[in-house]
Every structure is written in C-alpha cells, then in structure tokens.
Prior knowledge:
The chain is of the alpha/beta class.
Amino acid sequence: MVDLTEYDLTRYNRQMMIQGWAGEGQARLKASRVFIAGAGGLGSPVSIYLAVAGVGELRISDADRLELSNLNRQILHSDQRVGELKSVSAEKTLRALNPQLNVVASSDYIDADSIDRLAGRPDIIVDCLDNFETRYVLNAYCVAHKIPLVHGAIWGMTGQVTFVHSPETPCLKCLIPESPPKELFPVVGVTPGIIGCIQAMEVLKHLVGVGSTLKGRLLLFDGEEMQFHSLTLRRMPSCPVCGTGES
Ligand SMILES: [Zn+2]
C-alpha cells in the first residue's frame, strides 16, 4: 500500500470525508492503474475526473487527431490544438490538472494485438469508444483477464452505462451481440459529460471500495425527457466470449 503525503491529505481532503473513503480508500486510489480507451467525448470527463480524484496511473489511448467539429464535446482539448494528436493534447491537459498523476498516453490503434501493451493489465478499463468493433476487443480482453470494464455509450441526448466484470456479470457481447452500423451520429457535449461522469463515479467506487456499482444493470439515460431507467441484465449462456459459444 502506498503512503499519502501531506499534499495528498490536503488535496483530497473533501472526498476523504465521504463515508467509507478515508485515507485507506485514497491510498487504494493512489495505488491504482486505469486504462481509458478513447480521448474524445466520453474520455474527456472520465479522464479529467479520475485525474483530479488522485488515481495513481492513467493510461489513455486514442489514434485520432483533433478536428474542429470535436470541440462541442471533447473538453480535454482546445481550439489551438486542432490538428494535434488527441493523445498528446490529453496528456498536456491531464498533467496540468494534476502534476502528481502518472499519465501514459498513446496514439496507437487499439486492436487484439496492441491491447495488452496499451492497457498494461490495469485494475479497471473504461470504454470511452465510439465503435463496437473496438469495444468487442476491450470486452474480450477484459473477460479473458477478469478485468472490470465500465461501458458507456451515447447518441444524441441519450446514453447508457453498465459495469461488466465477467464471470460475475454478463459481458458486453451478451448485451449487444451484433455491432450496430458505424455512422456519424448526433451528439451535444452535455450527453457524454453526464454519461462520462457516471462512468468515472463507477470507477472511483470500485477502486476506493465504497457504494455499489452497476454490475449486472444497464443504466439508460434519456436527456430529452430527463429520465433514468435501469434494466437487469442476464448472461447469455451461448455467448461466444463469456459463455459456451453454442446455442
Ligand atoms: Zn458474454
């Protein structure tokens, strides 16, 4: 277990007042390693809030360069950085927010060959992606190594979050067996803001050991009607990733 410094005790004082958090919880957070897949709309709030909460190591991967049309929602980045690699821009922002944070940023594509090197067998992985092909890569890696995965996805003013920890919960492939078509979808920045903050909260609760997570539940957010619903999820025994693969 790592020791907290005077700086830590001051910086994180207010969150350590939360029931069950205390110095032990903060030390667990400081010792933990998180991999964030994507430095876009969801990756922005997730990485920012995990950085300022005092996570020890944040790995973040995104192969894209920043475009002007990203800036309505990707608050890790700014106007002057259009054209820069998002990974480079993310690293600058996160280091400025918390100089004590160990940031490992990469612009390599996440695929079945690179995932182990990019993620580095972390304590938890956060799905901040915008496509299901890469989500399935994350999911297979997490199921194989029993690493918890916090899934988030958005569309327009709606979104969803769930906490996958196989074999205790269904995996992402049980939930969404087929990849929806890749398309340019509508989105306003507050949607990934809300969904990303919920993902960050799930990560913090898991790492610190407070509260209960969305394990086995899918939280659905409808921003147009401002409603939250949650559904109980079931494992698919025939799931090709976490089940037998036979129907
Ligand atoms: Zn499954």
